[in-house]
Design brief:
341 residues; alpha/beta; nine-stranded mixed sheet; TIM Barrel; 18 helices
């Protein structure tokens, strides 16, 4: 009965733009990070941000979320940031949020997960672990820290758990690695990931703290025409076995290829099908909320049905909005997918 009610609520709120049910809630535990990736500016906050609540979510705000998120009946809570495992209350957050949603997932670089106890790690349904370089040297070049061996150790630890979570290699394709897709797939498999998920690098939005530190350095991260020729050949060279290890298979990789070509004016941007602002909410360390990772702040988590937030959803046409048209993720949660959550 609850599932039927939730499905009906989801259908209704995509028409009324007033939220009754949020299947997915994304919580930014931290706005700092111990990696120094060339595609992201969050690590620059480590020294810049001095206000504690802007650096990481306060325990007072966390307690308020533990008390209030239950009203939105979330099916999945995704801990992100910054690096969420740096938060001193990370283990408690995993436990408390799991009691609310039943399913906790974590987006992480994996470098400090080894400090967590087995109970915490086993309480996470899925880890999305950043994996942008297939070897130690390329990892250092792209992610700015010598962390490949620590990542390997984390994976061994996760695989040794009595019941281990799903472990997804999250790879952001950009100039430094776009020619190495077969190597990335092979290395991720060898290290023990369950699959690899590719995304194209975002070069156009103000996400990842670029609103504070300035736009992306496109010349260093955006693939060239020659890079894309190699990328296309690499996609074609992947056999069924390796494509089966890639989330979304060749269709996902081909969409990223088209996206990169569009950035260079060689193609139209891929069509966007997304309902993220109606089925999810991004809560920042201060409690401010966004309709998705890339859209602007629309209030705080206490005001998601007040005029600013409702007006944002009501006026958002994802097929025409400039941010949506150039979005690298395009997330659509169908009723069928919701029923499986």
């Amino acid at each position: 009965m609850r599932s039927l009610l939730d499905l009906a609520s989801l259908e209704l709120q995509q028409r009324s733009h007033r939220i009754q049910f949020l299947p997915i809630v994304i919580v930014y535990l931290n706005n700092i990070c111990d990696s120094r990736c060339v595609t992201c500016s969050i690590w620059k906050n480590n020294e810049l941000l001095k206000v504690p609540s802007e650096r990481q979510m306060s325990n007072e705000l966390l307690n308020e979320l533990y008390e209030n998120l239950v009203q939105w009946r979330p099916r999945q809570i995704l801990l992100s940031g910054g690096e969420p495992a740096l938060h001193p209350s990370f283990s408690e957050a995993v436990r408390r949020f799991r009691a609310i949603a039943g399913k906790v997932c974590v987006v992480t670089n994996g470098l400090v997960l080894g400090n967590c106890g087995s109970a915490t790690l086993q309480s996470v349904e899925e880890f999305y672990i950043s994996f942008d370089g297939p070897d130690r040297d390329s990892y250092l070049q792209i992610r700015g820290v010598d962390g490949f061996d620590r990542l390997s150790s984390t994976l061994r630890q996760l695989k040794s758990l009595r019941t281990h979570p799903k472990i997804v290699a999250r790879c952001t394709l950009q100039r430094a690695n776009v020619r190495r897709i077969p190597e990335l797939v092979g290395s991720a498999r060898e290290l023990g990931f369950d699959c690899i998920s590719f995304l194209g690098v975002d070069t156009t939005s103000t996400a990842f703290s670029r609103d504070i530190h300035g736009p992306a350095t496109i010349d260093s991260i955006q693939p060239t025409i020659d890079d894309l020729r190699v990328m296309e050949e690499a996609i074609q060279s992947l056999g069924d076995s390796r494509l089966g290890f890639v989330e979304g298979g060749s269709a996902r990789l081909s969409r990223i290829l088209q996206y990169f070509r569009a950035l260079l004016g060689e193609s139209e941007f891929p069509a966007v099908s997304c309902n993220a602002p109606w089925v999810s909410m991004v809560i920042e360390t201060t409690g401010k909320v966004r309709g998705c990772f890339f859209q602007p702040v629309i209030g705080d988590f206490r005001s998601i049905n007040e005029s600013a937030a409702v007006g944002f959803r009501e006026n958002l046409d994802v097929s025409q909005d400039p941010t949506c048209q150039r979005c690298v993720c395009s997330k659509f949660v169908s009723l069928r997918e919701l029923a499986k959550m």
